[in-house]
Each structure stands twice: as structure tokens, then as C-alpha cells.
Amino acid sequence: MAKITFIGTGGGRFATIFQKRATGGIYIAEKGLLMHVDPGPGALVKMYEHGLDPTQTDVIFVSHAHPDHYTDAEILIEAMTLGGKNRRGMLIGSESVINGINDYRPISFYHKKIVKEVKVAKPGDKIMLKDWYELNITPALHSDLATIGFKLVLESGAVSYTSDTQLFDGLIEAHKGARLLIVCLTRPLNGKIPFHMSTEDAAELIGGVKPELAILTHMGLKVIQQATKQANWISEKTGIPTIAAIDGMRIYLEDKIEIKKD
Q1: Domains along the chain?
Q2: String of DSSP letters for 79-141
């Protein structure tokens, strides 16, 4: 059984600045695998609030080099490696995260050195986690052009994560087969801007992928104010059950999908 905890469901610079929702990312737990996805500001503190132990994490995944996705990554690397004393774990990130591109330099050389494995991930890559779980790297179209998402194949089904992206040719195909589709939604209905997902685009994506359940997270300020309304619109438009995540929400993925809210 997979357990997915939404440590923080806010995203975008203003939701992050004002902390209208927490911005700690997502934690995926499956047999033998603990994976933290996009640990933005406050991830460490919120982990403890939700009963998660950062010293047990096996994999840290950072989709791109924007602060709402990476700022707690270094301290979580220190937790994962017990302050650098135990060289373990894996750091997976876009080229902008790992190597740096232009002005982006989010992870220090020191922190990359104390992790056992560091992977620069690009769309089309397949990375094995714990020699068992297949992580398929998916494309994105965002202002950090190296941005990536993923489709993670777990025993209980595939979990896809879009990261920040606008809708583009190939995005639906990349996430097909996902049982659970996690969509970063920063813009509401009729609020399209370049490089970000709006509600109508999310509906097209979800309707094309046809997951068993779609979850909206990493929500911008305008989405947060009407999150349930946006999710309901997508559900009605697509016929696919779609919910807006809340901080601390947990998803249990087994024969059935269970949703538990704090």
C-alpha cells in the first residue's frame, strides 16, 4: 500500500510569501521507499507536524530551480544523511537544480557530495529507486526550461506528478497510465498565463490521461480562494473524480483509493 502525504498544497510566489497554504511538497511512502517531492519553504517543520521523520527519507526529488520547490532541500539532505555522517540516499533533480543553469544554483556542492547518489534527470529517463520502483521522468514547459515531472510505478499503481507546467502537446501522453494524477494548479478558470497550468487546461489534461483520481495541489493564491469550486468544475467537465488537496491530507493507494484529511 502506498501512502501519500500532502505536506504543503500552496505554490507560486505569493502563496509562498504569505503562506496561505504550507509549501512543503509531497511525501510518498511505499514498501521500502520514502520519497520527498519538491520540498519548498517550511518542509522540515511541517514534516514533524505530520509525524514524518526526515532522517528516514530515501529519495529527494526536485523538479526545478524555483524557491517554492527547492528551498528546504539542503537541510533535508542533511537530515537524510544524518548531518553528512551517513552517506546515503538519492537526490534527483532537473539540470537546473543539480548542475545549475544561468543564475540558478539551488543545491550546494557540499550537499551534493554528502548524498550517495545524485541524478540529473531529463524527460524520457528511467531511474530505478531502491532497485525496485521505476521512476519515469516526464516533460514540462515552464519558465525554468529544465523543469521535469514524473510517473512513478508503485506496486499499487502509477502515480504521476506534473510539476509546474503549461499544457502542451505530449503532456497527456507522458502521464497516460497513471492511476493517480497530481496536478500543480497555479491559475484558476479563465486565468491562463504562460508556463503555468490553469483550471481549463487541467481539465483537458485530466480528461486525456483518465486517472482513477486526480488531485490538485501547489495552488496559487487565486486558486486557493476557490479550490473546491475549481476541482468540482473539472470533475463535472471530465467525469474524472478530482479533488483539491489540503495541507496534511493523506492518500492511501491500495485496491481502493482512500482519502483522509486531518
Answers
A1: 2-260 (3.60.15.10)
A2: HHTTTTTS---EEEE-HHHHT--TT---S-HHHHHHSSEEEE--TT-EEEETTTEEEEEEE--
